[in-house]
Design brief:
This protein is α+β, with helices and mostly antiparallel strands. It is built from 11 helices and 11 strands. It has 3 domains: 125 residues, Orthogonal Bundle (Butyryl-Coa Dehydrogenase, subunit A, domain 1); 111 residues, Butyryl-CoA Dehydrogenase, subunit A, domain 2, CATH 2.40.110; 145 residues, Butyryl-CoA Dehydrogenase, subunit A, domain 3 (Up-down Bundle), CATH 1.20.140.10. It is 49% helix and 16% strand. Helix 1 runs parallel beside helix 4, helix 7 packs parallel to helix 9 and helix 8 packs antiparallel against helix 9.
C-alpha cells in the first residue's frame, strides 16, 4: 500500500469563500455523502489502483446504494435529484479520481439517460431499475476508431433483416464496455423509413452477451488507469425489432446524452482542481526552505491565490449553469463554456500545484500528477477544447465553422 505524504481532507478553502451558503440543505447533504464515499472508499486505494490499472467493480453496487447512479432521472428506482445536487456529487467523486466520476457519467448521464429519454416503457422497466442499483452496467457506443468529433461520419451501420436488425462496425474509447450488460450503440440506418435520403442515426440497445459483440479493454493507457475504456467490434450483431430506441431520431439523440455528461464534467473537473489546490496549500505550510514554510513566500502565495480564484470562478459558473438546467433554460453553448473553462483551468491548476510540490509532485505521494494525467483524457472526451470553442464561436457569430 502506498504511503502518502498528503492525505486528502475536508476543504479549508471554503472559509475564504463561503460557497456552501449558496446551496440548499438537500444539496449539501448529497455533497457530504459523496465526499464521505470518496474519502472512505476511493482515496485509501486510488493510488494503488491507478498504479496497477485496477477498476474496483465491487464499488458499483455501493454507488447504487448511495443513489448516485442515474440520480437526476425520476422514477424507475432513480433518486430524481436536482441538477446542482448531481453536479456536487460529480465534484466530490472527481476530487478523488476522474475515473469514478467518469463511471457515474457513463452509467447515468449516457447509458441510463439514453434509455430514460428515448426508450420505450418496456425498455425503461427492463434496464433502469437494475442500473440504478448498480446491479446492471451500461455503456454508450458513439465514438469510432477514426475519430470522435464527427459523429455524422460514423461508419457503423444497422440494416433490416426480416423483422430484426443487423449491426456492423466498430467503436473505440467506450467506457465500461467490457463490464457492461447493455450497450447503447449508435448506427446509421439505411432504410427509407428512417430519415431524409433513407439514412439516419438511430440508437440500439445491445445486450453484450449477443453473438458478434466483442469489447476489448484498451491497453497502455497513461491516463484514466483506474477506469476501463474499450474497443467494440460489432460483427453482424443480430437484434430484435424492439432493440431500437423509439424516441431518438438523428444526431439530436446522442447529443442530448452528451450534454448531460458534459454538464457533470463542468463540476467534476473543479473537484480535481480543488484536490490539487488542497495538496499545494497543505504542502506549502509544511515544506520549509531557507528557514520558513514556502507558503510564506510571495510567489507561492501568488500561485495559491490565482488557483483559488479560478476554482471559485469555476464553481460559481457550474452553479449558475446548474440553476439554468433546473429551470430548463441551459443551452448547448452554455454547456460548452463550462466544459471548456473547467477542464482547461483544472489542468493549469494541476501544473501550478506541481511546481509548489517540487520534485515530490511527480510521485504518487500526492494526487496531482494523477489528476493531471486524467484531466488530459477529460479534456478530450465529450468534445475537445477546439469543438467547444467552435460551438461558442457559432453562438457568438451565427456562423458555423465546422
Amino acid at each position: 500500500m502506498t504511503t502518502a505524504l498528503f492525505t486528502p481532507k475536508a476543504p479549508s478553502i471554503d472559509a475564504v469563500f463561503d460557497f456552501d451558503a449558496l446551496l440548499s440543505d438537500d444539496e449539501r447533504d448529497w455533497q457530504q455523502r459523496a465526499r464521505r464515499f470518496a474519502q472512505e472508499k476511493i482515496n485509501p486505494v486510488i493510488e494503488d489502483d491507478f498504479e496497477n490499472a485496477h477498476f474496483r467493480t465491487e464499488l458499483i453496487p455501493q454507488l447504487g446504494a448511495e443513489g448516485f447512479l442515474g440520480m437526476h432521472i425520476k422514477g424507475y428506482g432513480c433518486a430524481g435529484a436536482g441538477a446542482v445536487a448531481y453536479g456536487l456529487v460529480c465534484l466530490e467523486l472527481e476530487a478523488a479520481d476522474s475515473g469514478w466520476r467518469t463511471f457515474v457519467s457513463v452509467q447515468g448521464s449516457l447509458a441510463m439517460s439514453a434509455i430514460a429519454k428515448y426508450g420505450s416503457e418496456e425498455q425503461k422497466q427492463q434496464w433502469l431499475p437494475g442500473m440504478a442499483k448498480g446491479e446492471l452496467v451500461g455503456c454508450f457506443g458513439l465514438t469510432e476508431p477514426q475519430g470522435g468529433s464527427d459523429p455524422a461520419g460514423m461508419t457503423t451501420t444497422a440494416r433490416r433483416d426480416g423483422d430484426g436488425w443487423v449491426l456492423s462496425g466498430a467503436k473505440r474509447w467506450i467506457g465500461l464496455a467490457s463490464l457492461a450488460d447493455v450497450a447503447v450503440i449508435w448506427a446509421k440506418v439505411d432504410d427509407p423509413e428512417f430519415g431524409e435520403g433513407g439514412r439516419a442515426v438511430r440508437g440500439f440497445l445491445v445486450p453484450t452477451s449477443t453473438p458478434g459483440f466483442t469489447a476489448t479493454p484498451i491497453p497502455g493507457k497513461l491516463s484514466m488507469r483506474a477506469s476501463v475504456q474499450c474497443d467494440i467490434d460489432l460483427d453482424d450483431v443480430r437484434l430484435p425489432a424492439d432493440a431500437i430506441l423509439p424516441g431518438a431520431e438523428g444526431l439530436s439523440g446522442p447529443f442530448g446524452c452528451l450534454n448531460e455528461a458534459r454538464y457533470g464534467i463542468i463540476w467534476g473537473a473543479m473537484g480535481a482542481a480543488r484536490s490539487c489546490l488542497e495538496a499545494g496549500l497543505s504542502r506549502s505550510l509544511t515544506r520549509e526552505v531557507f528557514g520558513k514554510p514556502i507558503g510564506a513566500n510571495q510567489l507561492t502565495q501568488a500561485k495559491l491565490a490565482d488557483m483559488f480564484v479560478e476554482v471559485e470562478k469555476g464553481m460559481l459558473l457550474a452553479l449558475h449553469l446548474g440553476r439554468l438546467k433546473e429551470r430548463g433554460a441551459l443551452t448547448p453553448a452554455q454547456i460548452s463554456v463550462g466544459k471548456l473553462n473547467s477542464v482547461r483551468e483544472a489542468l493549469e491548476i494541476a501544473h501550478q500545484t506541481r511546481s509548489i510540490l517540487a520534485g515530490d509532485g511527480i510521485t504518487n505521494a500526492f494526487p496531482v500528477m494523477r489528476h493531471a494525467n486524467n484531466l488530459e483524457s477529460v479534456r478530450t472526451y465529450e468534445g475537445t477544447d477546439e469543438i467547444h470553442q467552435l460551438v461558442i464561436g457559432r453562438a457568438l457569430t451565427g456562423l458555423a465553422a465546422f
